[in-house]
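To: structure desk
From: M.T.
Subject: fold request, one chain
Message: Could you run this one when you get a chance? Sequence is below, nothing fancy, just the single chain.
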Amino acid sequence: MRSIGVFQAKARLSALLHDVEATGEVIVITRHGKAIARLSPENEFTMPRRRLSGHDLAERARRFRESQKADPEFDGKGWEVLKKFARE
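Reply: Done. Structure tokens follow.
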């Protein structure tokens, strides 16, 4: 897997797409050395999607909320205090 800066990727997009199509290689696009996107063959990351029932969606949201750690800065503060903090 090779990486390329965003400026070079912009200038060479057609060639990069050709490389991905011809070789199946994944190309990572970086900005300031940090990966921000990937060019990859279409079939590599295709995942089937399914609709969730209302119950399944609510259950998934509940599990997500329970997995989050409390933030000591905001834990135990009331709604009015939080609104005031957000507006500052």
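Reply (cont.): Strands lie at 2-5, 27-31, 34-39. Let me know if you need anything else for the meeting.
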